[in-house]
């Protein structure tokens, strides 16, 4: 419904409306914005736009803090705290009006920003953008729908950003900046905070916002001497500035559990009209302790928690550092956390435990993908002072009826490391692809140059995409002849790059000392293509354990399997078609737990036709099957080509989209799974030549990393296998990251002892 310009806006419990007059030029009609979605704090929600009489959403592609700032100001707030993507506040309905919104931050309305054009979008509602705005309302803005408990509910404070201004020379040279004077941005202007009444709790909140888990003691007497020296310096303007109230934030009082300084009671100006803001004080000084990932020396900090309460935590499937689905290790097994009562306090405990700052967002509804396996915790309640999630109160999820559709996730504040300025992509068709160019020392000075394409792979490409804030790598290219690099970066400055894939910057990876690139760069320079979301394949270990059995299969039924090399080499020397092969058969069910569909690397035009089985192979080796001794030596192997990669089943509410029938598109949709039954060809290991004994059965999905995934650590599944010559027992099946290291080591040690292999 379009309201007349003179009418008062209608206030709904979950929706905030704001009219504005369109600028002259392209937008002749008035446009309204509103925040919608699940009930939460005022000033946050899914961003919706009324255009041509219809409400629609904004796609998160290209949406950033500048766009959020413009939207919040248009909505009547003075600033944005953060923005959200992937339908954090639920999926909207109707058209997606705006896509690839690019704002400078100073525009008067969202419509003034660059975008694809009204209604021109390739997005779906799972990519709806949202915003979190600060609580201070601009004068003359319409009344809010709700006023209680909103972010930044602090009289006189409109907090936009917080930073530490380094004072000492060593602090200025360090990255990240961990010590300095606290400055907050208020109404577009930076102010210093008076140290009168400044507490360690205040420091804890500031450090958390800047991505640091803890604050540390700082020698304020030394800084006081520097302050007094500056006041006496005739060339310094500090004395004049410090006497102005506009230079200061008068007082901040935090409890130490707040995730954001905007939630602390704050006075920008002193209560009395002519009172000086900071008459005898100086700027507040804060010193923060970075987490292990961001420390130059990788020393491990000692935990202050009692060992019995420490629950190890990890994040999975996040696009950026410091975000992902929350998983905890209980009873030796990794599992997820239910989102019932999941909030910023609990999310911040997770973030600090992992060495990050406080949480920017506590995400619900499996927004970082669904886990597989147990759900360990539900209704987690934290005060904010806990050192570990295990210290918080919670219920066992078994009683709560939670499912993986309700897996909790977090986005944490991480320190600013300036890594993005040390790498760039050039020559691509979009900002997400191109030749990799790095800033590296050459003869004593930093210089832009190319990376040698030899040995370049997905792990290295993943690091580049993460470093640029572009998510995951979808392709790693060793030849980039179709992309023109920058003229000033033609020289190869880095070669032999080998990354584990978890590094925050390419400069942290191993590489050659002197550059050695026989191919010479140029068309053989390394390149990448990045994507915001990626699939994540995980094998259902329990199904393998339940379906394994032996079959003695006649050779006359194995001609096609022999042609596809699904039998061991000794089959070549048998008297076909007489005899049989002993096969260890099982079913496999492969789930896509990621946030993008799993698709074959090659298009249908490049699939390989196999005449004997009369089907196409979209990926020649989709899974490896191995039987290993307990010392790790391979005694038998098998492989499975993806002749039919499809959505065998999907959870309730999800539609099957990939089917192999009639040469259809192949793939596995997000949340769905592909099942290879035990009774189809090549779904086995040929163990004809294997003697009785105890073994490790191993399955590796996507073994050559042909298709990029958000997490390769869960692609391996292992079982303990006992074979007596006639029967087989499979037990203890688990994915490689499902159990803690202690449990895995104990299992292996028990097997070795039982078989005298120690």
Automatic annotation (TrEMBL):
Residue ranges of every copy of the SRCR domain listed in the record: 33-134, 162-289, 313-413, 423-531
Gene Ontology CC terms, in alphabetical order: extracellular space; membrane
Signal peptide bounds: 1-26
Keywords: Copper, Disulfide bond, Glycoprotein, LTQ, Metal-binding, Oxidoreductase, Repeat, Secreted, Signal, TPQ
Pfam families: Lysyl_oxidase, SRCR
Cystine residue pairs: 59-123, 72-133, 103-113, 254-264, 338-402, 351-412, 382-392, 499-509
SUPFAM superfamilies: SRCR-like
Cofactor(s) this protein cannot do without: Cu cation
EC code: 1.4.3.13
UniProt name for this protein: Lysyl oxidase homolog 4
């Amino acid at each position: 419904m379009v309201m007349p310009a003179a009418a008062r806006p209608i206030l709904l419990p979950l929706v905030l409306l704001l009219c504005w007059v369109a600028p002259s030029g392209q937008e002749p009609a008035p446009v309204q914005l509103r925040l919608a979605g699940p009930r939460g704090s005022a000033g946050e929600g899914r961003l919706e736009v009324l255009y041509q009489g219809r409400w629609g959403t904004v796609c998160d592609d290209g949406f950033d803090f500048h766009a959020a700032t413009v939207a919040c100001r248009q909505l009547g707030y003075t600033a944005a705290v953060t923005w959200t993507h992937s339908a954090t506040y639920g999926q909207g309905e109707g058209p997606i009006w705006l896509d690839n919104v690019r704002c400078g931050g100073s525009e008067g309305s969202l419509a003034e920003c660059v975008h694809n054009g009204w209604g021109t979008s390739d997005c779906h509602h799972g990519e709806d953008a949202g915003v979190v705005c600060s609580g201070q309302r601009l004068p003359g803005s319409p009344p809010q729908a709700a006023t209680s408990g909103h972010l930044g509910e602090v009289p006189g404070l409109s907090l936009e950003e917080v930073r530490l201004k380094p004072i000492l020379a060593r602090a200025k040279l360090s990255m990240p900046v961990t010590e300095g004077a606290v400055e907050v941005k208020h109404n577009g202007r930076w102010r210093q905070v008076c140290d009168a009444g400044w507490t360690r709790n205040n420091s804890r909140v500031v450090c958390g916002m800047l991505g640091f888990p803890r604050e540390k003691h700082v020698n304020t007497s030394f800084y006081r001497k520097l302050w007094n020296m500056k006041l006496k310096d005739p060339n310094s303007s500090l004395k004049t500035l410090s006497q102005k109230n506009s230079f200061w934030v008068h007082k901040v009082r935090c409890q130490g559990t707040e995730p954001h300084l905007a939630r602390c009671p704050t006075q920008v100006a002193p209560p009395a009209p002519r009172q000086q803001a900071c008459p005898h004080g100086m700027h507040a000084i804060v010193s923060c302790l970075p987490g292990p990932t961001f420390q130059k020396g990788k020393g491990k900090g000692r935990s202050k928690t009692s060992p019995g309460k420490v629950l190890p935590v990890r994040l999975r499937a996040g696009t950026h550092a410091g975000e992902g689905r929350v998983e905890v290790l209980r009873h030796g097994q990794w599992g997820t956390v239910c989102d019932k009562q999941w909030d910023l306090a609990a999310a911040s405990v997770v973030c600090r435990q992992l060495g990050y700052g406080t949480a920017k967002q506590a995400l619900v509804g499996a927004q970082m993908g669904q886990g597989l396996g147990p759900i360990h915790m539900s209704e987690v309640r934290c005060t904010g002072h806990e050192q570990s999630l295990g210290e918080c109160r919670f219920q066992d999820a078994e009683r709560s009826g939670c499912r993986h559709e309700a897996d909790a996730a977090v986005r944490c504040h991480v320190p600013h490391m300036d890594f993005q300025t040390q790498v760039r992509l050039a020559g691509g068709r979009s900002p997400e692809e191109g030749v990799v160019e790095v800033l590296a020392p050459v003869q004593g000075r930093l210089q832009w140059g190319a990376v040698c394409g030899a040995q370049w792979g997905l792990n290295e490409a993943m690091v580049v995409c993460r470093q640029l804030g572009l998510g995951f790598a979808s392709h790693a290219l060793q030849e980039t002849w179709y992309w023109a690099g920058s003229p000033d970066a033609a020289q190869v400055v880095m070669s032999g790059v080998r990354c584990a894939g978890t590094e925050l910057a390419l400069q942290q990876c191993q590489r050659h000392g002197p550059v050695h690139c026989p191919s010479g760069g140029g068309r053989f320079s390394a390149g990448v293509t990045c994507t915001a979301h990626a699939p994540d394949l995980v094998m259902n270990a329990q199904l393998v354990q339940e379906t394994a059995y032996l079959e003695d299969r006649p050779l006359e039924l194995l001609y096609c399997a022999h042609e596809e090399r699904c039998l061991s080499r000794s089959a070549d020397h048998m008297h076909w078609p007489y005899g049989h092969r002993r096969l260890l058969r099982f079913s496999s069910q492969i789930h896509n737990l990621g946030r993008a569909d799993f698709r074959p690397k090659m298009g249908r035009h490049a699939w390989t036709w196999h005449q004997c089985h009369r089907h196409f192979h979209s990926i020649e080796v989709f899974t490896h099957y191995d039987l290993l001794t307990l010392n790790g030596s391979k005694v038998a192997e098998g492989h499975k080509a993806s002749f039919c990669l499809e959505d065998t089943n999907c959870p309730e509410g999800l539609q099957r989209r990939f089917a192999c029938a009639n040469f259809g598109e192949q793939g596995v949709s997000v949340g769905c799974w592909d099942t290879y039954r035990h009774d189809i060809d090549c779904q086995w290991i040929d163990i004809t030549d294997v003697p009785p004994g105890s073994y490790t059965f191993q399955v590796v999905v996507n073994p050559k990393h042909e298709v990029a995934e958000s997490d390769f650590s869960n692609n391996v599944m292992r079982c303990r296998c006992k074979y007596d010559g006639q029967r087989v027992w499979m037990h203890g099946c688990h994915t490689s990251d499902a159990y803690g290291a202690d449990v895995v080591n104990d299992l292996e040690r028990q097997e070795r002892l039982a078989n005298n292999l120690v």
